[in-house]
Design goal:
Blueprint (H helix, E strand, L loop, with lengths): L6 H21 L4 H19 L5 H4 L12
Helix pairs in contact: 1-2
Length: 71
């Protein structure tokens, strides 16, 4: 798989993951809402770390900048 997540997308995913973990903590990690928020946070954090989003592939979305040609 090729990397398809750009820098701004990564930052947004990490921020969303942190907010979801705060929500999970606020509602309780053992509740249904807490479990869902935790799972979503882990998925967002993992895709941000790896730089690939499998959901982007069928829609041909790529937020990563093309590599620049050095002179």
């Amino acid at each position: 798989m090729t990397k398809n997540i750009g820098d701004i997308d990564r930052i947004a995913r990490v921020g969303a993951a942190v907010m979801l973990l705060v929500v999970a903590w606020a509602v309780g990690f053992g509740t249904i809402g807490g479990v869902i928020a935790t799972v979503l946070a882990v998925v967002l954090g993992a895709t941000a770390t790896v730089g690939e989003c499998p959901l982007y592939l069928p829609f041909h979305i790529n937020t990563r900048r093309p590599p620049t040609q050095g002179s």
